[in-house]
Amino acid sequence: MTDMRALYQEVILDHNRNPRNFGKLEGATCLAVGDNPLCGDSYTIYAVVGDDDTIEKVGFDGTGCAISKAAASMMSVRIKGKTIQEAEVMIEQFRHMLTGELDPKSDNELGHLTVFHGVSQLPQRVKCAVLPFHALHAALEGEDEISTEGEQDVWNEDTP
Ligand code: ZN
Prior knowledge:
The protein is α+β, with helices and mostly antiparallel strands.
């Protein structure tokens, strides 16, 4: 557990300090804004989706805590080159991991994103980690704005 926690902190701090794919993404075909008012996290997630439904690039900008920024950064790396369908599977698995419904050691598509498993022990930070995924989902669905609070949280209703 101590090793896992150390790894988790190291990776998250690295991505927080040097976020990958940070900045407005030129040529984005879709975007969505995600807000987490509980923590003050606010990001715009951009994606370039090709004709064959492949996500060619993901970028983000905005501000927020270390966990949300690292999650957006790592997501942008992991999602690149996936199809929309593959991305949706990953988004779903990530959310399930943070709500304790998915064992990170099980067969999944999350790769290094499993370092965020530690966040499931910190209920007040779960929304921070999920926010970028939530926003990417909204962008791919063609919604522009989502919030992790209240009735705008349509994503949960769509989830089977
Ligand atoms: Zn946060």
